[in-house]
Amino acid sequence: xxxxxxxxxxxxxxxxxxxxxxxxxxxxxxxxxxxxxxxxxxxxxxxxxxxxxxxxxxxxxxxxxxxxxxxxxxxxxxxxxxxxxxxxxxxxxxxxxxxxxxxxxxxxxxxxxxxxxxxxxxxxxxxxxxxxxxxxxxxxxxxxxxxxxxxxxxxxxxxxxxxxxxxxxxxxxxxxxxxxxxxxxxx
Length: 187
Ligand code: CUA
Hints:
Distance between the termini: 94 Å
Largest sheet: 5 strands, mixed
Shape: elongated
Number of strands: 10
Structural class: alpha+beta
Bound molecules: dinuclear copper ion
């Protein structure tokens, strides 16, 4: 074989190997895209295990989210339920108070547009969707304050929409709850 032949043969082998790898890398991309599509479509079409609704136009008139029922409530079993509303551009109550070492359920909704419900320093991060109740369990081990900035763009006042969660000692919380039906730390 001449040097020219060897060179031609090498070029041929190189082209073949290159083509194989190109096909393989495209196949990987196709498989990943199919996996992502399947996961997304599958999840989107599965109904949630539990959906609770609330009429966004009558929240303030009757039911669980009337103003006098917002805030923290001690349940008969000793757990605490915190009810809140996120609206353009504030949360009610603006300061939520919860005890340490207690199972807590946040229940919240929106009367207008989608808002974000995020408690900094915890894994609580959900959306408040008009018509639906967002319910999330929580537990706080240490006293302290957590900021709650709205994290869904909800209009011109979005960046000024925030609240806070104040975690206080359980004994102090129970003492506060002795003479009040609903607790907040709004001053
Ligand atoms: Cu409410 Cu952003």
